[in-house]
Amino acid sequence: MTHRDAIYADISAERDSQDAKWGPQTHSLPVWNAILAEECGEVAEAALTVAFHGEEGHLDHLREELIQVAAVAVHIIEKLDSGDWVRGV
Ligand SMILES: [Mg+2]
């Protein structure tokens, strides 16, 4: 398994975790964008924590947040590909 394969495996596991946590989700694209933006905000917060408080322990959290962003993006792509999204707002 390459490093990239390991990353994709982490993203896939996070996708499964999000499904288990939230159940089936069908949203409009603006709502999906808000969910993705919320996750991106958590990445920004984690990156600032690393910048201002050092790397110890915080890099793992930053990586987790990045995996969550990627998993949400994959989820949106799945919805676009399947057509299972709400038109409008
Ligand atoms: Mg997050």
Describe the protein's architecture and organization.
The structure is a single chain. This protein is mostly helical and 89 residues long. It has one domain. The chain is 79% helix and 0% strand. The protein is built from three helices and no strands. The radius of gyration is 15 Å and the shape is globular.
- Helix content, binned percent: over 70%
**General shape:** globular
The total number of structural domains is 1
Main beta-sheet strand count, sense and barrel state: none
Give the topology string: H per helix, E per strand.
HHH
- The number of helices is 3
Poorly predicted sequence stretches spanning 5 or more consecutive residues: none
Task: Tell me briefly what this model is.
This protein has helices at 3-22, 29-53, 58-82.
SSE topology:
Elements: H1 3-22, H2 29-53, H3 58-82
The chain binds magnesium ion.
